[in-house]
Amino acid sequence: MAGMIRKLLVSTIATKVIQEARKPQNQAKLKKAFADFQAKRSGGKRPGGTNRY
Predict the structure, then answer these.
(1) What is the pTM of this model?
(2) Is the Cβ–Cβ distance between 8 and 14 less than 8 Å?
(3) Which residues of the chain have pLDDT under 70?
C-alpha cells in the first residue's frame, strides 16, 4: 500500500515539474542557471591554486 502511495506522489511531482519546465519564462531561467553552473565549473583555477581535474 505504501509503495503505491509513494509512486502516486512521485508521479504527481514529476508531472508538475514537467508542466513548469515547459513554460517559456522557466525555460529561460533554466538555461541561465545551467550556463552559470557550467561557467562556474570550468571557470579557471580554484582558490587553492589547482584545478579539480
Answers:
(1) 0.50
(2) no
(3) 44-53
